[in-house]
User: Fold this.
Amino acid sequence: MENLPPFELHRPEAAAEAIRLRAGIGGARYLAGGTDMIVNVRRGIENPTALIDLTAIEELGRINEEDGGVRVGALVRLDDLASHPAIAAGYQAVAEAAASVAGPTHRRYGTVGGNLCLDTRCIYYNQSQWWRESNDFCLKHLGDVCHVAPGGKRCFAAFSGDVAPAMLVHGAEAELAGPDGSRTIPLSELYRDDGMDHLALGDGELLISVFLPRPASGAQSGYEKSRIRGSIDFPLAGVAVLLAAEQGQVSDLRIALTGVNPLPKIVSGTDAFVGAPCDAEALDRIRDLVRTQAKPMKTTTVKPWYRRRVIGALARRLAARLA
Ligand SMILES: Cc1cc2nc3c(=O)[nH]c(=O)nc-3n(C[C@H](O)[C@H](O)[C@H](O)COP(=O)(O)OP(=O)(O)OC[C@H]3O[C@@H](n4cnc5c(N)ncnc54)[C@H](O)[C@@H]3O)c2cc1C
Ligand code: SF4
Assistant:
């Protein structure tokens, strides 16, 4: 890893000021906890002329219980998210996912916004400048060829944030603000299936908060991940499940995946389980459904076939726990 290159550092105290600064400085980038951004700057993956440090913006650092749900500011630290009573009580998948990110120090600095806006990852990309240069770089940054799928012009770098799938099964909405105003979108619409350009944020747009609607009574959720080092690593495969049942029959089933596609993937076809019991046969079908929609590529040191098998097994185990 290289030393930090020179850049301007700005520390606004209001979101509107951050957006104004970002829009006015070509090549500026937002900085939250910095646990991913600073690594990428030191690796030459990001070359910002200026970093707009968001950490002094108090309005973004709160969790508020509102009518109909809970609003989580983009600057909320992952540790605080995991331990907040309203999150732990009603949104177990979110609490479990936040508690599983990296190691304890990362969770004390890392934020919800940084986790949701995390860049996609690949073994040919998350490397030092000299390593990537010695491989003629790659399509995602400075090169012409994808080393994972050399014949094509697509990047398959995997979205590997833990919190997004958990928020997706809870039907989260994202509040965004930018130079052209504010908007609210389903969190699912923040993501695109493109490892090179996976965020549907407008130029300079800032994630302000995420709203988590109150779950239906009886709904339970959870999150599980597989990783190389249990104490600190990104998910090789991660899965969030929300399951609600009435009188032994499934009334709602939602599943979302991370680490295995360029975006946090909502599994389709789960409506087929509604109205039937979540028995052993249904659990096997859940496992198989997840395996068909996970598309891991050679973006980690662990083989794609293993990650596909693991994510199905995790989904089955988690659904069994919730049932
Ligand atoms: C050793 C190691 C292990 C890790 N393991 C995991 C893991 O297991 N799971 C996991 O999910 N992550 C992991 N990470 C990545 C990272 O620590 C977390 O994802 C963290 O939550 C990122 O948040 P941050 O606030 O530090 O983001 P930053 O690094 O500050 O920013 C990340 C990106 O988000 C953008 N951004 C930040 N806030 C906003 C906002 N409000 N609006 C728009 N854009 C924004 C930044 O511009 C940047 O592009 C790991 C990192 C390291 C170094
Ligand atoms: S998937 Fe291909 S283009 Fe994308 S980061 Fe990896 S090697 Fe580069």
